[in-house]
Design a protein that fits this description.
The chain is mainly α. It is 67% helix and 2% strand. It is built from eight helices and two strands, in the order H-H-H-H-H-E-H-H-E-H. It has helices at residues 2-8, 26-38, 44-54, 58-129, 132-139, 167-178, 183-196, 201-208, and strands at 158-159, 199-200. Helix 6 runs antiparallel to helix 7 (183-196). The termini are far apart. Mean pLDDT is 68; it is low at 1-18, 133-187 and 193-216. The chain binds a DNA duplex through residues 1, 4-5, 9, 19-24, 41-42, 44, 59-60, 62-64, 66-67, 69-71, 73.
Length: 216
DNA sequence: TTGTGTTTTATTGCCTCC
DNA sequence: GGAGGCAATAAAACACAA
């Protein structure tokens, strides 16, 4: 090491370099920077040429290039980090927004599911409480020989009972009454349906269809 | 002037390539 | 095995606030 210093740390005039370090002059640094811009790797010929031109030791030139490459690398790493950090910050904001949106949508979905469940349970309750139509379907077809029940209706639009039973229903009740069966059951069912104030036309249609008259 | 942080120059040790 | 590159580090030079 000491030998190396003694061998290398001398200037072009051969005098030993007394001071351990000295900064390069403005023009020297400028020329080195210019050469570095052309190519940051230093081939031997260029090293010797630069050293001669700038009055430096070839080793000083190669050390300068080495340190310069290290500085470039450090700055590039800083730039890369800066870009990555800003990208990360943007993604973080987007992630937070998406997370909030997700929470909102999940909450809405839960509410809608609960609502759907309530609606379905109400429908089920209606079916359980109203075995009439099921009874009629079970009964299959029986010709209405009495000719009492025959009513056309618009299919599939809800029909409301506004306080009183339609005359056709009363006829139906009378029909069953005349057959001496289930009058009370039917009346109770109609009363419930009236309370609920709702019955679809298709249900009524099937209800009053001659072909779908219940078998008693 | 001095203490402290930053920049620049140089060294050391290790690794790769020819 | 020698030359050259790189990472880590030392040390000198420099900048600047107190």
């Amino acid at each position: 090491m000491l030998d190396r210093l003694e061998q290398e740390d001398s200037y072009e005039d051969g005098s030993p370099m007394l001071e351990k370090k000295r900064r390069l002059g403005y023009d020297q640094v400028k020329a080195l920077e210019k050469s570095f811009e052309l190519d940051n790797k230093l081939e031997p010929e260029r090293k010797v040429k630069l050293a001669e031109d700038l009055g430096l030791q070839p080793r000083q030139v190669s050390i300068w290039f080495q340190n310069r490459r290290a500085r470039t690398k450090t700055k590039q790493l800083e730039r890369d980090y800066s870009v990555l950090k800003s990208n990360f910050d943007v993604l973080k904001v987007e992630y937070t927004n998406l997370q909030q949106e997700n929470e909102t949508l999940t909450r809405k979905l839960r509410e809608l599911k609960a609502k759907l469940l309530r609606v379905e349970s109400n429908e089920l309750e209606k079916e359980v409480e109203c075995p009439i139509s099921r009874g009629i379907e079970r009964g299959g077809s029986e010709s209405n020989s009495s000719g009492i029940i025959k009513e056309e209706s618009n299919v599939d639009s809800p029909m409301c009972f506004n306080g009183s039973l339609p005359s056709s229903m009363i006829n139906l009740v009378h029909y069953y009454d005349s057959r001496g069966s289930q009058e009370n059951v039917f009346q109770n069912q109609f009363m419930r349906m009236e309370e609920q104030n709702f019955l679809s036309n298709s249900e009524l249609f099937s209800f009053f269809s001659v072909d779908q008259s219940p078998t008693l």
